[in-house]
Amino acid sequence: MNPDIEEFLNNYRKQIDGYAQKLPGGDRTLDEAMAYLEKIADVGRTCSDIGTFMGKMVETDMMNKMTQYLTDLAMASLSKERASGSVRIPTPSELADGYHRSYDSIEDKAGSPETCRVYERIFELEKECQDGAEFLARLVEESLLLKIASVPLKEVSKKAMNDSDNMSLPTMVYHHEKMIEMSEMAKSALEIQYESQRLMELNRYELTCDMMLTNDLVGNISIPVIDYFFNPSEENRRQVESSYRFLAEFFGIDADELFSIPRVLDHIENAVLREVRKQHPETTRDTFIEDAKNIIKKCMQGKPELKKGPEAHNSFRIWDKRYRLVDALKVMKNPPRPDEYQT
Amino acid sequence: MSSPIKNSEKYLQGRLAETRGRPDLHPRTIQVYHELINIIQSDPENYLNRAGDMFATLQAEQCDYEYAFQLLYEKLENSERARAHGEVLKALESATGYSDIWMKKSEAVSSVNDMMNVGIEKRNAVIHFFASLVNYMRSVDTLKLKFKNQVLENWIALQELDPEISFEKLKTHKPYCYLTYYDNARYALLEKGFREVLP
Description:
A: 15 helices; 2 strands; B: mainly alpha; 11 helices
């Protein structure tokens, strides 16, 4: 059998053995649990790796069934202890077991120093405390149950915030700022879960809104321009002309105005050129814009004059507010969320 | 009072204090911790037996979680997802102990899985619809025809997800209109383009 699967089954065996010592021989649930573990082992023998095995465990509901057996055994052991008047308070090590497993599963320990410090403090308390009750009281007293949820979130958000800034995703930068702020303010694990989800849902709207705006401003003209650059056919020229006329009507701007909008410049620098520079590292934002303007000019040569839409089109809406296009970068860094969604 | 009992009270008080930042998110948990604190203060010697297996705290925390998300998605007008959390909440409320709560939760979560995700599918369908419409409006020749077909396909996909879909709904229904940057003038241009596409 695959050693990872064997190890997994051994964990179940150890737990069942622990309950077997507390329950009378012939306990029906104990016998059933042991028989069920054998069924799981049969499945394990047919799998070449732990991933396939876990997939089958979930698919066939075996994991849930086993969890139910273990829970029943735990409850039966507790009832027996309670009936005999010997309710035992768990040791700190028993309670800390799950934290050790979580700590061991952190892949990038060097990149998660604050998270590691929280776990290390828990393990110090595990050694210092006399019993499980004292251990839990100290965990709460030092807010470690909260920190175990908030600190990793803060650490991940800090890294993601820097990445988002380098990829022209201003709404994501804002999102991660809010996540950091929230993780510092929250008082309970549920509050962290709820607020994380709420902030993510609001961010989805803002991210989509910003992506649609940048795509309609930049993507829809740069794609035909690039096509024309590589293949200056009449059909491609007509696509450039048509896309440019659409842009002018839809946003009430021409190429000079388009390429002076800070949101557009940021998107070109950090998103468009990120790709272009993989093949043409010498490309600068200025040369890219100059080339684009020249191609547009060439494609419009001898054609009817460009008709811009009204100045009112020189704007965009996010949530319930309208702003000028020149302010898009600033607004996307701090979107005007409606009050009704603020908690 | 023995030391483990003192520590247990400290723990309960600490957990209760965690709920004070947002009591609206913890209605059931607050109630359960108050009851346990009452027991430990009035009858400390019998606390361990009277508190039982602490299932009530687990159930309260789980129920508070689902209830909070039900309310959140109602506020965000994602009715399917709100209903899905409501179904999981009902399953949790009907649980009677550790032995059945995870099974009931797991069954309920599986049964509402599609309901949970329909909001995401609708959102993606709206994004694809508008992207294809703008592509149609900016294009000429063969590309225009290609994008025209895409607009129709995306509209049908949207209709399947939301039988009440209309251009008016795209403009006014918050879960849809908050996805876009369009104002009324731009919606009017897009609607004109859409009418050209309709058979």
